[in-house]
Specification:
With 329 residues, the chain is mainly α. The protein has two domains: 214 residues, HUPs (Rossmann fold, 3-Layer(aba) Sandwich), CATH 3.40.50.620; 81 residues, Tyrosyl-Transfer RNA Synthetase (Orthogonal Bundle). The chain contains 13 helices and five strands. The strands form two sheets. The protein has a three-stranded parallel β-sheet with strand order 1-2-3. Helix 4 runs parallel beside helix 13. The protein is elongated.
Length: 329
């Protein structure tokens, strides 16, 4: 039997996940469970990079992310699901790697300056924010993951991880594989107002939304502003409803032909999309309701996941210490 490769990926606990998170990453993670040994981490330390001032909701947000993961199909029998801060080896490896990572490598990763621009006015120009790509590298290398699912925007982070792994292996002997990217084509999922789907814009369709709420939100979607009457030909290329069909890769020729040919109005088109999305998300919604009433199950999944992750990470750190002559006398 062929040995499976190993994957590490994670999400920051920012609360309930939305349709963009599902289509962009989570549905791919579910598929990867059949091909790889998967470690999926709720990266609560990473959340501190931008939200260190108020940590009161971190436990609640961890719970919400875990419920969404399980509801969408991540299986604790096939994947290791755990919280980053429960495995202290991440922090130790971050420290060790930071000692050998040139400052210029971290400074050239574009995320730091982008975050400063996006969150202008907030005090996030911190040591932790600058160095968090090294913590990401520690997350990956602690499990000696050989594959990381990424979108194109994350490739600079992965290349930094590869460079750090190469430098460590050159200095101390080979301990780490150089993780390879598994490029994920992330569909552009708009929010209900046409902008990128984002909690900060208040334009999301959450995995936790009940079917009626999904339909209500779809009815609020922005469509072609120049289409006044049903008999007016539509322009699907500027319509949020059509953009959703593109993200779902469903019924594109049919929807486009009916819109351009004025065979369906915007209200009717939104009603049909509402049924498509509510049917898609209804099983997730019902699994969520079951899990919300079983906090003991959630705690046990994370406890067992942290135990399994910790065993792997401890073995990695023991080898790192030996390689770096940090095992005492």
């Amino acid at each position: 039997m062929a040995v499976k490769g190993r994957i590490l990926s994670g999400m920051r606990p920012t609360g309930r996940l939305h349709l963009g998170n599902w289509l962009g990453a989570l549905s791919n993670w579910v598929r990867l469970q059949d091909e790889f040994e998967c470690f999926y981490c709720i990266v609560d330390w990473h959340a501190l990079a931008t939200d260190y001032e108020d940590t009161s909701r971190v436990p609640e947000r961890i719970r919400e992310v875990l419920i969404d993961w399980l509801s969408a199909g991540l299986d604790p029998e096939r994947s290791v699901l755990f919280v980053q801060s429960d495995v202290k080896e991440h922090a130790e490896l971050h420290l060790l790697l930071s000692m050998l990572t040139p400052l210029s490598w971290v400074e050239r990763v574009p995320t730091f300056k982008e975050q400063l621009r996006q969150l202008e006015g907030r005090e996030i120009a911190t040591y932790g924010m600058l160095g968090y790509p090294v913590l990401q590298t520690a997350d990956i290398l602690a499990y000696r993951a050989d594959t990381v699912p990424v979108g194109e925007d994350q490739l600079p982070h992965l290349e930094l991880a590869r460079e750090i792994a190469r430098r460590f292996n050159h200095l101390y002997g080979t301990v780490f594989p150089e993780p390879q990217g598994r490029l994920t084509e992330i569909p552009l999922v708009p929010g209900t107002d046409g902008r990128k789907m984002s909690k900060s814009y208040g334009n999301t369709i959450e995995l936790a939304d009940a079917p009626d709420e999904v339909r209500r939100k779809v009815q609020q979607m922005v469509t072609d502003p120049q289409r006044i009457r049903k008999s007016d030909p539509g322009r699907p290329e500027i319509c949020t409803v059509y953009a959703f069909y593109k993200a779902l890769a469903q019924r594109l020729p049919e929807v486009e032909e009916r819109c351009r040919g004025a065979r369906i109005g915007c209200v009717g088109c939104k009603k049909e999309l509402g049924e498509v999305l509510s049917s898609l998300l209804e099983p997730v919604y019902h699994r969520r309701r079951e899990l919300e009433n079983n906090p003991g199950v959630l705690r046990e999944i994370l406890r067992e996941g942290s135990r399994k992750a910790g065993e792997v990470a401890r073995a990695t750190l023991e080898e790192c210490r030996r390689a770096m002559n940090l095992c005492g006398i």
